[in-house]
């Protein structure tokens, strides 16, 4: 079901937003019965705290949600999402003195709270409360963003039994068809003929053919290329994962799902740019023809790679895809992947790292992340660690020995495949929400796309935001 705001002409009830400091003064503006009700309920305006307000005849007259204090707000985001999940059905409008960016966050959080993954079970708790878009908020833009994020969540939430490379290709083609984008697909043995050997090597053991998906959209403006890791399931290959490590591997195509969501935002908003999306889609399986430890692959770039762990497969398929993207030297090249557990150890599930050598690009992304309430953290392409990915027998090692700096060495590995494009950034995503939070149910999580969307005018020029 699409995520939308309420009809602006529909009758609606007020949802007051009150912070702790203003609670006493605001309460005195209410009729005496409502004041008594609030006092009796113990409402203290804590962040996200909700209380219904009765009218004179006992009918519902509205509700109030606490805005807490500055310290509480700094520790969370999408505080209004709780109201979307708990208020009675019907249309609501905000009665609040909020800054424009606060209104936008509140409205987006409400939309995101409406997401439900209902493919295998009918949703039993879908919110019935709908919000009228607050004054000054670009409702159409937020609806595009929320529904694109829902696409990302749907793809990651779908198990590998129903989302292998072929099904990911179908979703990719369906997205392209909605916006009249062009799609090209290279499958199976044709990957070798088209000089994409590492994508083939990782996916050849699965009966579900490996493939490279490509989408092109837009005829004018700067060139933006998105590359997303599409490992539809990762057993680890012959370096088989234990059960505890395999349990969430349906989400190993989270990079692909994220770039598809970002592409939907870009196309849905009609941004003025030339978009290219590349997704190497594979299943890392176990069979007699599987990639072996210490095999040496010759990549599209001509670099040789010693495979010291078949479970470090994502950087292999991305290496070929990035080399292909780099040949066109786009104005900006963005790589998104659920790549390493090391990133989670360093920063946890909510804060994906990104890597770039371009200071202006890094500043634009950081600013976009803050505006979009889509947190990210810059990590370094630490060149002194380059020797760790040089095994001696080949140009590169896909899995350096030891457990230190794993996210950094993976990023350094990918950087070797980008030599013609100065503006390159790599995101090491988690793509999963382990504990439910406002606007983010437990399960698939979209990370980084909203930050990048907000940053694109600074990265590529303000004209891209004008369709």
UniProtKB/TrEMBL annotation:
Keyword Hydrolase: yes
Keywords: Aminopeptidase, Hydrolase, Manganese, Protease
All residue ranges annotated as the Cytosol aminopeptidase domain in the record: 309-316
Endpoints of the signal sequence: none
InterPro entries: Leucine_aapep/pepB, Macro_dom-like, Peptidase_M17_C, Peptidase_M17_N_1
Alphabetized GO MF terms: manganese ion binding; metalloaminopeptidase activity
A biological process from GO: proteolysis
Organism domain of life: Bacteria
GO cellular component: cytoplasm
Keyword Protease included in the entry's annotation: yes
Family, as annotated: Belongs to the peptidase M17 family.
Annotated PANTHER family: LEUCINE AMINOPEPTIDASE-RELATED (PTHR11963), PEPTIDASE B (PTHR11963:SF20)
Entry protein name: Leucyl aminopeptidase
Lineage: Bacteria, Pseudomonadati, Pseudomonadota, Alphaproteobacteria, Rhodobacterales
């Amino acid at each position: 079901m699409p995520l939308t705001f309420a009809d602006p002409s529909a009758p609606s009830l007020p949802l007051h937003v009150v912070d702790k400091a203003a609670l006493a003064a605001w309460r005195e503006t209410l009729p005496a019965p409502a004041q008594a009700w609030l006092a009796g309920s113990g409402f203290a305006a804590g962040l996200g705290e909700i209380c219904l307000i009765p009218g004179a005849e006992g009918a519902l007259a509205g509700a109030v949600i606490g805005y807490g204090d500055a310290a509480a707000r700094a520790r969370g985001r999408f505080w209004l999402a709780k109201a979307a999940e708990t208020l009675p059905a019907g249309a609501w409008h905000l009665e609040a003195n909020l800054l424009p960016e606060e209104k936008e966050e509140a409205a987006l959080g409400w939309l995101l709270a409406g997401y439900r993954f209902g493919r295998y079970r009918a949703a039993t708790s879908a919110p019935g409360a709908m919000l009228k878009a607050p004054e000054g908020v670009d409702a159409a833009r937020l609806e595009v963003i929320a529904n694109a994020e829902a696409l990302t969540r749907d793809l990651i939430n779908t198990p590998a039994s129903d989302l292998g490379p072929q099904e990911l290709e179908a979703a990719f083609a369906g997205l392209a068809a909605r916006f009249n984008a062009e799609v090209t697909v290279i499958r199976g043995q044709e990957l070798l003929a088209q000089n994409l050997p590492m994508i083939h090597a990782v996916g050849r053991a699965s009966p579900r053919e490996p493939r490279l998906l490509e989408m092109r959209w837009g005829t004018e403006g700067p060139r933006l290329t998105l590359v997303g890791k599409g490992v539809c399931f990762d057993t680890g290959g012959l370096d088989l994962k234990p059960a505890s490590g395999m349990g969430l591997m349906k989400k190993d195509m989270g990079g692909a799902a994220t770039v598809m969501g970002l592409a939907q935002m870009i196309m849905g908003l009609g941004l003025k740019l030339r978009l290219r999306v590349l997704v190497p889609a594979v299943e890392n399986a176990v069979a007699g023809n599987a990639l072996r430890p210490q095999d040496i692959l010759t990549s599209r770039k001509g670099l040789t790679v010693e495979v010291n762990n078949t479970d470090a497969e994502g950087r292999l398929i991305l290496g070929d895809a990035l080399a292909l993207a780099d040949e066109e030297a786009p104005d900006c090249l963005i790589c998104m992947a659920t790549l390493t557990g090391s990133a989670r150890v360093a920063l946890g599930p909510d804060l994906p790292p990104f890597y770039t050598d371009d200071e202006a690009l890094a500043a634009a992304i950081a600013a976009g992340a803050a505006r979009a309430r889509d947190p990210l953290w810059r990590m370094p392409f630490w060149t002194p660690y380059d020797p760790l990915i040089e095994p001696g027998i080949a140009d590169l090692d896909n899995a350096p020995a030891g457990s230190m700096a794993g996210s950094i060495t993976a990023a350094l590995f990918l950087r070797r495949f980008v030599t013609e494009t100065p503006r390159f950034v790599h995101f090491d995503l988690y793509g999963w929400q382990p504990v439910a939070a406002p606007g983010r149910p437990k399960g698939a999580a979209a990370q980084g796309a909203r930050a990048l969307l907000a940053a694109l005018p600074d990265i590529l020029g303000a004209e891209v935001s004008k369709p």
